[in-house]
Amino acid sequence: MSDHSSAKSSPLPTYFVVFFALLIGTALTVYAATLDLGKFNAAVALTIASIKATLVALFFMHVKGASEKLTKLVVIAALFFLLLLLGLTMTDYATRLWS
Amino acid sequence: MQNNASSAAAVHADAHGEAHNPALLHHFAEPQQQRDAASLGMWLFLATEVMFFGGLFCAYLVYRLKFFGDFAAASKSINMPLGATNTAVLICSSLTVVLAVWAAQTARRTLLLVSLAVTMLLGLTFLGIKGIEYKDKFEEHHVPGASFSFDKVEIPGHPHQYADPSHAQLFFSLYFVMTGLHALHMIIGLGIFLWLFAMAWKGRFTPEWHTPVEIGGLYWHFVDIVWIYLFPLLYLIDRHP
Question: Is the ipTM value over 0.85, yes or no?
Fold first, then answer.
């Protein structure tokens, strides 16, 4: 039901809010890179990038309003396998401190 | 039983009756199901793309942790303002893509054509800026290969300590493969949007059927997301003074 009503009201305000949030995020990530945050520089940059990517997926790619639950399942599965790839690789390379 | 059988027969007759929706293929029950099937197929393809780029991101992660200083020095040599501009260009193009999808949904022909055209223009702008960056790298001999040179470049935060050229070369290999693969996706995206523009020009898209605009848009947004990660990872490793 909620899907139906949201389809009727114009999505344009949401699109523009997301658009400006993405531009602000870009400016923020460039600014954060000029600060010396030590090891947190990478964490801040990746956090901002992930927020931006989530905004694009949820609102521009309509994952949020997707009527088909399978779509959400595919998105989650893709992320899961990506994390598996990166995470399991790191359990090897990031723990070779003795070598 | 009698009732059920007769109502099923009525539905069947209806599905093949004169009121059949021309935009609806026979093997789908309703337009919503047809749209969901198309977008699900696109999402499955995008999941394979996540793994495709994921392998490169993984290689990047391993070597960045191993040769952090050399990667930071190499990263500092690429043109950050151009990269940031390109990020903004792609975000603008993502906006014009959602406008195109909305225009197709609401039967706004002019807005659809303009949005598709502006998207292509922004895509070409991105590739043009990328071309300038590549040209600079060629002139600086930062392209991996026989003429590669990265001598006496200080590691950021470590004065008088120079980056190892062979490790920097590894960064540039990843830089060119990752941005190159991304640029290839942009070129394919431009081809898709050119086709969408031609279809829209002929008036093929209606509020009932505009699936290509929607799934072409999904592809474009995905390519945008890849760049959202590439920009901080390649351009912003260690930029503070």
Answer: yes
